[in-house]
Amino acid sequence: MVSSSDDAALAALRERYGDRYGIRRAGSLWVANPRRECDIVAPTITEDSGTALAEALDNPPLRAGRPLAALGLGPIDAEAPPRPAPAPAAEDGPAAAPA
Fold this sequence. Notes:
The protein is α+β, with helices and mostly antiparallel strands. It contains two helices and three strands, in the order αβββα. The chain has a domain of 55 residues. A three-stranded antiparallel β-sheet has the order 1-2-3, covered by helices on one side. The longest helix has 14 residues. It is elongated and about 50 Å long.
């Protein structure tokens, strides 16, 4: 159950960060998503408290991978032919010992 202090904290977060993030509660989690797609910031930020979310939004975590659009992937279209899988990343062999 959401308390009135949680409601006040959610309103304060939306007031402070709402121009950059969509902020909501999902059960016991506090969740923020950037309003604009960003190649640097994580697409979803979740924390266990409003205070922790505010700290995370002041210094947002970096994105772990590239956005799907950067990979040429988009929404699934049942009519479209399957897309080829991306080429595997080249693996470096063992480091050469200095001579």
